[in-house]
Amino acid sequence: MRIAALFAALATALLPALPGWAEVRIKDIATFEGVRENQLVGYGLVVGLNGTGDTLRNSPFTEKSIEAMLERLGVGNLSEDSIKTANTAAVMVTAMLPPFARRGSPIDVVVSSLGDASSLRGGTLIVTPLTGADGEVYAVAQGPIAVAGWAAQGQAASVVEGVPTVARIENGATVENEIEFELTSLRNIRLNLRNPDFTTAARVEEVIEARLGGNAARVLDPATVEIALGSADKLDVPGVLADVENLLVTPDSTAKVVIDARSGTIVIGANVRIARVAVSQGGLTVMVREDPQVSQPNPVTIGGTTVVVPRTSVEVEETETHFTILEGADVSLQRLVDALNAIGLTATQTISILQAIKAAGALHADLEII
Prior knowledge:
- This protein is of the alpha+beta class and 370 residues long.
- It folds into 3 domains: 3-35 and 186-249, Gyrase A, domain 2 (2-Layer Sandwich); 38-175, no CATH class; 256-293 and 307-369, no CATH class.
- The chain has 6 helices and 26 strands.
- It has helices spanning 3-14, 60-72, 198-212, 237-245, 333-342, 347-359; strands at residues 24-25, 30-32, 38-47, 89-97, 106-113, 124-131, 137-144, 146-147, 150-153, 158-161, 166-175, 188-193, 217-221, 224-228, 248-249, 256-260, 265-268, 273-274, 277-280, 284-290, 293-295, 307-309, 312-318, 323-326, 363-364, 366-369.
- The protein has a 6-stranded antiparallel barrel with strand order 3-4-5-11-7-6. The chain has a 4-stranded antiparallel beta sheet with strand order 2-12-14-13, covered by helices on one side.
- Helix 1 (3-14) crosses helix 3 (198-212).
- The longest helix has 15 residues, at 198-212.
- Mean pLDDT is 80; it is low at 3-20.
């Protein structure tokens, strides 16, 4: 028996099927190796701003870029003090090149201010080449930008909504070069699981073999399943991949409790189990109140002064506590949540209890605090 299949058999024997488990498509939990986006980046200028562009004194690279652009357009050499514009801003342009993007295909771009421009609203991006990690130009961006945020200011006050120095251009770039990748030349392809797990990988292997035939897939590691495509001349590779990505599989996951202590958010996975424990939550509430009184001298008193007499009252209230028993390892997620809610806890108290249960060795799950 293969190692991955052994893990799957052990998981099936030791962990009962839970109502929270659902079948999902393979395309939703895995990606095909080589079928991916690529990051593009470029440096450009946004013109046409209504006085909200870069201050050339504080952004010398903007001034140099304006001079270089004008020289390329045939404008003669400019003296250092001849550029006084405030309608131009230096920006970084980023985009994602989709897999199998062909020449002429449009893609979206994001434009972000690089200098001290206060807003990019109303601007137009000038032709900007977008390069990949290898330094090659794969797309060219240009066009009017759309800003979601806005800013208004006067001499003594200002209001800013959103981020007016970041904008998007829908279909603002055109693909000029393609990344060479031929599906028909593949003899096998690998599935990369987004959440590596032996049990999930074994289940993916099982459903693929049931669909394509025996020995069509094999698990390489917890994150990778290799699919044998056979002879590419006789096989419809895109059709096979489309068939595989729509197969349904039940993914498995490790037991985990995730806590965001800042917001009080608690997420408990369906596989979380606890040993039989008794939990009590309570404490003291101390209330201190200051009620100072003012003592005034009589009107005819000579040399009398007003005196503030402090008066402090302290009240101590002890919260009544009760023990609640949390059941053993066969408890469902719903029963666990109901038991925690029965104690009447706040989010902060629940976090403290879960940490205490973990410290006692009764929480059979990973406790992750973010």
